[in-house]
Amino acid sequence: MSEAYIVGAGQSPFGSFPDETYRSLFDTAFDRTLESVDGELDTADIEEAFIGTLGVGGRQIGLSGPAVTEHLGLHGIPTTRVENACASSGYSLRSAVAAVKSGMADLVLAGGYEVMTDTSSDHTKWWLGVSGETEWERLSGTTFAGVYAQMASAHMDEYGTTKEDLSRVAVKNHGNGAQNPDAHLGFECSLEDAVNAPDVADPLNLYHCCPTTDGASAVLVASEDVAFDLTDDPIRVAGVGAASGRVGLFQRPSLTSIPATKEAAEQAYEMAGVGPEGLDFAEVHDCFAIAELLAYEDLGFCEPGEAGTLLREGRTDPDGELPVNTSGGLKSKGHPIGATGTGQVVEAFKQLRGKASVQTDDPVRGLTHNVGGSGGGVTVHVFERTSEVEP
Amino acid sequence: MSSRGIAAAGVYVPRGRVTAEDVREAWGAFQGRGIDAKAVPAGDEDAVTMAVAAAGRALENSAMSPNAVDAVAFATTTPPVAEEQLAPRVVQALGLSSETRTWHHGQSTAAGADALETALNAEGTVLAVVADAPVGDPAGSDHAFGAGAAAFLVDDDAAVTFAGVGSATDESPGVRFREAAEEEVASLDITGYERAAIRETTRDAIADLGLDADRIDAASLHQPNGSMPYRIAGEGVVSNGAVAEGTVVDRIGDAGAATAAIGLVAALETGGDESVLAAFYGSGGGAVAFAFEGRLDGDEAATLDDGERVSYVESLRKRGIVVDGDVAGGGANVSLPTWRRTLDSRYALTAGRCPACGALSFPGEGACDDCHERVEFERAPLSSVGTVAARTVIGHGGAPPEFVELQQRDGAYGAALVRLDARDGDGSVLMPAQLTDCDHESVAVGDAVRRTVRRIYEQEGVVRYGAKFTPTE
C-alpha cells in the first residue's frame, strides 16, 4: 500500500461568528490550507473530498458535503459527508487517507465544519444531545456534560481523582490557547477560577466543559508522488487507527475508560511502529476535563488512574516530556463539532513544521485523538516529519 | 355467604408537604379549616404515577402475584389527559396481565366510591385505585388542595368483608365543580348551602346503610377540610372518636377523590370488632356509604406523617402553577411507537440474557453486549433495587429541553447509571435513569436506590412514563 502525506492544513478562526456561515467559514479554512502548501497547487488537481459535520441546527442536513465543495469551486468532484459526531472529521481524514493509500486518488481534501452559536438556546440544546444514545441516555435527562460527569464520578470513586485534577486540564489548555490566535476562548485561567466555577453537571463545572463553537478546518492528503512535488517537507501519516463502541455509556464494559480509544491507539501505534514513548506531542479530545484524563490512560501515556498525577507533575505541559493540547485543545481553542478532528491535524501539521503558537522542541512525531460522543467512534492518527525520518 | 371484601390496601402520598402556616404567611389567610399541612406532588408525579405507587403497595401488602389481578377500577378527577384511558398505563406499569379488564371513574369526589363499588360487585381479584391531585385558584380554593392515592385489592375470602352499601341523591350543583377545559376546581362559596348539601346527602346515604352509630368503630367521611367530617357525623350519626380514626385531611390536604379512600385505609387499620364506615360525597348531589367488618394488617396510614417540608413557593413550582412548560422542537426525538416498544424494559426493568454466552444486555435487543453474537435474547427480569455506579446532577441550563420544565418545577436533578442485578442473581446491567424524591447532591456512587414509576416527559401532548430511582434510605 502506498503512503499518504499531509501537504497542507488550515483552519478558520474558532469562535462565535454570527456573521459567518458554514460555507464562508469553510472558505477561510480552505484558503489557509492552500496558503500552507509550499509549492504551486492547482485546485483542479483535488480529486475527491470528505467533509465532516454533525449538521447542528439542521441548516443543511442532506448533501452537506457538496454544499461546501461546490461553493469553493471544487466543481464536480465526488464529495462524501462524514458524520461520526465529534469525530466526524477524524473520520473524514481517515477516508481521505484510505482513498490515497488505495491508489484511487492522489490528492484528496479532508475537512469539517460546524456552526453552533447562531441559534436559540433551546434549539442548541436539542442538538447537543443528538449524538448520545437517545432512547435511554438522553431520556434520563442528560446531554454530553451529564454523561462525561458520570464518567468523572466513577473515575473519582475508583481512583480518587479530584476536582483539582479536572481543573488542571482547564488551566493547562487555557494557558496554551491564550497564545493561539485562532482559539475561541483564548484567555488564561487560574486553578482557583477553574475549581470555583459554577456547576454544569456535578462534578463538572463550567471550566471542565468545552464551549460550543463555530469553525471549519481542512487538510490536504497526497500520495507520495504528488506530495514531494508540492513540498520537500510533507508530513507522513504514519499511523491510522479507528474503532467503534456502543453509543451509550451504560452499554459499555467500563465507565472509567473508552475502549474504542484503546483499540484505535493500538492500531495506530502498530502501523507507525512506535508506542506512546515515541511521541513528541499529542492533541487529545478534551471535550470535558475528564476526557483528557481518560485519554492519557487509554492512549497509554500512563497507567489507569494515574492521569491526575501526570498532569499534576506537569508532564503534559508545553515543556513537559509529552506536551498535550498545545493548541489549547477543545477547551480553549474550541469545539466546532465537525471541524474538530481535522482542526487537531492543523495543530499537528504546524508543530511538525515548527510553526505552532506554542511550539514544542523540534518534534518528529505527534498524535491526534478524536472521540465521537462519549466513545461511540474514535480515530487516532500518528504523524511524522519526513525531512528528519526520511532524509 | 361469600366473604368478598378488601384483602389488602396501599396508600401513597407524595413526599412534599407545605404547612398551612406557610400558606397563611403568603396570603394572609388559609382557606382550609382543620388542615395543618398538605401533600405536594413532585413535578414528575400525577394521578397515574400515584395510582401505580399505591397499587404497588397494595400488591406488596397482599403478597399476591400481579398475574392474579383480573381487573382494575381506576378513579380520578384529575386525569393528566381529559380523554384517554389511563388504567392501561397502570396495568402496564404494574406488570399486570394483558387480559386485565379496566374500568374508569371520575366526574366527582365520589369517584373513589364508584371504583370501590365496581370492584366489590365484580368477580375475581380486582384492584380499585383512586388517585387525585386537584388544583384551584391559588388565592383561595387551592389552599386546601393536596394529593394522594389509595388502592384496595378486592377479593373473595378477604380479611375485611364488605357488609353493605347505601346511597342518596339530591341535586345540588355548584358545591365543587370544574368547568370544561378548565384546570381549576371552583366553588360558588355559598357556605350554608354547600354545608347543608354535603351534610344531608351524606347522612342520607349513611342512613340508607342502616348502621347503628354505636356499632361504628371507625369512619372515613367526606373530608374536603378537617371540620366537614365532624359536621356530617354530628347529632349522633357517628361518634367523634370514630371520625378521628378515618380523618386524614389534616395531614395531606384535600386530595380530591382520594381523601376519603385514604381515610378508609386508616380506619380499616385501626378498626375494632364492630363496623368501619366510609362515606363519599360527590358534588352535584350524590353520596355513597359502605360498611366493612374486620381489620387490615399493615401500617399504610403511617406514611401520612412522613414527608419533607417544602416552602410555599416550592409547592407552586412543583405543581406547575408558576411554570410554563412549553418546549421548542428540535434534534433528538424518540417516536411514540419506539417508546412503546421499550415499555417492558422501562416499567418492569427487564434485560436480555444471551443464549450463546449467558451474559446480560440492556436493553435486550440487537447483538449481545458481551460476545457480540446476534441472538434472540431470553427475557431476564431485573431487581427493582440497584446501586448507583455513576452519577451527576444536572444543574440549571444543563438539561435537554424536554427536561427544562421538570427542572423548573423540581430544581436540579440527578441522573445516574444504576447497576441492577438479574433477579436470578446471575449478572447485572447498567440502566441510565433519573433520580427523584431525594437530595440529589448527596447521592453518591455505591448508594442503594429503588425503582419508582414517574412521568419522564411529555411530547406532543402525550405523557411518557417510566422508571426513576430514589434512595432506599
Automatic annotation (TrEMBL), chain A:
Residues 245-385 form the Thiolase C-terminal domain. The keyword tRNA processing does not apply. Residues 5-225 form the Thiolase N-terminal domain. GO terms for biological process: isoprenoid biosynthetic process. Residues 310-338 are annotated as: Disordered. It comes from the Archaea. GO terms for molecular function: acyltransferase activity, transferring groups other than amino-acyl groups. InterPro entries: Thiolase (IPR002155), Thiolase-like (IPR016039), Thiolase_C_2 (IPR055140), Thiolase_N (IPR020616). Pfam families: Thiolase_C_1, Thiolase_N. Keywords: Isoprene biosynthesis, Transferase. PANTHER family: ACETYL-COA C-ACETYLTRANSFERASE, NON-SPECIFIC LIPID-TRANSFER PROTEIN-LIKE 2. This is Acetyl-CoA C-acetyltransferase. The lineage of its organism: Archaea, Methanobacteriati, Methanobacteriota, Stenosarchaea group, Halobacteria.
Automatic annotation (TrEMBL), chain B:
InterPro entries: ChsH2_Znr, NA-bd_OB-fold, Thiolase-like. Keywords: Isoprene biosynthesis. One of its GO terms (biological process) is secondary metabolite biosynthetic process. Residues 346-374 form the ChsH2 rubredoxin-like zinc ribbon domain. GO terms for molecular function: acyltransferase activity. This is ChsH2 rubredoxin-like zinc ribbon domain-containing protein. The keyword Disulfide bond does not apply.
